[in-house]
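User: Here's a chain of 298 residues. Predict its fold as tokens.
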Amino acid sequence: MRSFSLGLMALLLVSAAEPAVEPAAKPAPVLIAKPALWKVSDADTTIYLFGTIHLLKPGTHWFEGKIKTAFDASDELVLEMLPPNEAEAQKIVISRAIDPDGPPLSKKLTPKDAAKFRAALKSLDIDPEEVELFEPWFASTLIAMAPMEKLGYGPESGAESRLTAEAKATSKKIGALESMGEQIGFFDTLPEDLQIKFLNSAVSEMPQAKKVASIMVGSWAKGKPDKLAAVLNDGMNSMPEIKKVLLTDRNQRWANWIAKRMEQPGTVFVAVGAGHLAGEESVQAMLKADHLEAVRIN
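Assistant: Prediction complete.
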């Protein structure tokens, strides 16, 4: 389940981060990236599809060439989600992340899994007692996010933050495909037994965080969506019901949105998590049902 613990599970906390309002000064590049970009177009409408990495290291250099050209030509930026202000974001998370009436989180796990969970928290300098009221899905985000932060990855350097800052600086319209409440709902409404499986998976995958993150970011930087799909999506195949909720159904809704938006003239830059634009159930694959072809820009 690497795709969840190191990819989609980053979604919540990344989305809750408030992006910069001005383009950040460029630090010395630590990675020169040339990620993939696609275009869906007709006589009067162009929609660019760009796959993002939510968490990146400072100095990741990617906003240039075809990406910047497409962005500059666009009238509107559309992201997965626009974060509300910090107070509202905290209110949304707290209302879904805490289970005040249920048993302590450790009691929902087997003794063996609870011991592994506590050990993982301690290795991350998190007091196990502080997470006992959390829902399993939220505890999983802590296990998934903390190693990434220790490795130097963060949402402030992520692609969404840069794109949002650039859009604000150039007075572009900014839209979203989902709300924060909807995104949290994908996790919070999962049956508890599946949430626990995800938590146990996040704990077991934690030692591999550095290796998997390197492969994931490296594949994105080299513009290799097939390899990226193998890292982000293939791990979900063992839980098809969860893959349907978190990936397939969302890709279909986004493809439907794109097909509808093609009826209006203009140029739109759509930026969503790179895993949604990779693999056999990608947004591009869904578009084919509407007789729309996403052409990769080389």
